[in-house]
Amino acid sequence: MRTLVVGSRASQLAKAQVKEFLGPLRARFTDVEFRHQLILEGGDRDRRSALASVSQASGGAAFSTNQEAALVAGEVDVIVHSLKDLPTSNPAELILLPPPGREDVRDALCGPVETATLTALPLGARVGTSAARRIAQLLAVRPDLGTVPIRGNVPPRLRRGREMGLDAVMLAAAGLHRLGLNDQIGQLLPIEQFPPSPGQGALGIQVRADNTFAIEVLSTAGDLQVDAEVRAERAMLAELHGGCSVPVGAHAHTDGGQLHLYGQVTSVDGTKQLTARASGPAGDPAALGHRVAAELMHQGAQEILDKARAT
Ligand SMILES: NCc1[nH]cc(CCC(=O)O)c1CC(=O)O
What we know:
Elements: E1 2-8, H1 12-28, E2 32-38, H2 42-45, H3 47-53, H4 65-72, E3 78-82, E4 94-97, E5 107-110, E6 126-128, H5 132-141, E7 146-148, H6 154-163, E8 168-172, H7 173-178, E9 185-188, E10 203-208, H8 212-218, H9 224-239, E11 248-255, E12 258-266, E13 273-281, H10 285-298, H11 301-310
Parallel strand pairs: 1-2, 1-3, 6-7, 6-8
Antiparallel strand pairs: 3-10, 4-10, 5-8, 5-9, 11-12, 12-13
Helix pairs in contact: 9-10
């Protein structure tokens, strides 16, 4: 019996993601023992300091560092991340395998279901989110809204939103679905105005590039269409030199052999919004990502991003 040690953060969402990833693999490889190992990150140990520093720490990579160290050291064979939390540059000895099927890519407004929608939120309503992209996108459609910083794992964000009396909290539908929190969703936001963070809803399956056994087994869980889509989105983000904290949205979908990519950059105050689209062969997602990024740059993305980074 061979063993594969699967690492993840200790959050409920991370545990749900590992379960989802391992389900089909356990059924397919009855001669492999899959062992789950939790790896604490700075953001898990000290919740209070994490609240303040999570997006600044290690250039936005606060969720992946201890895990990557454990992977490089050989303590685990694979890390199951939320792909959108992973920086677009991977350490040289680590690679990302094709992710399994993607969850709903959209963002959601959560709160009282009658009022947590774009049209029903009262004038000047307060929405909980700390993400530059979400703040910018919200203000672009509802400049009257106020946004309130709220960080941490998904269930505590919902709880604090209620405690603080916020009108809504903006979260990824993927995490809500995976945690069985669908009943919290007031509205799933339209992709046109609210393209998600690149990679949102997909798992980031990270292994050592030389771990042939892990690659052989875990690749069988991958979905090549999802892989092309998220690679296009992440290539666009990388080309814009964006981390996870820039007001950049991206969404790719496949149609036959064609990959379509939609990209959006929004100023933090929501007053300027650039969008671009392109299509290309599914076999070259990076080229498509670069094309859409180049079009956004041509429209003036650099100035918007420089300003967003300065705030
Ligand atoms: N940055 C935190 C984070 N990382 C992944 C998810 C949800 C799952 C996903 O987007 O894939 C979330 C919470 C959120 O943005 O609502």
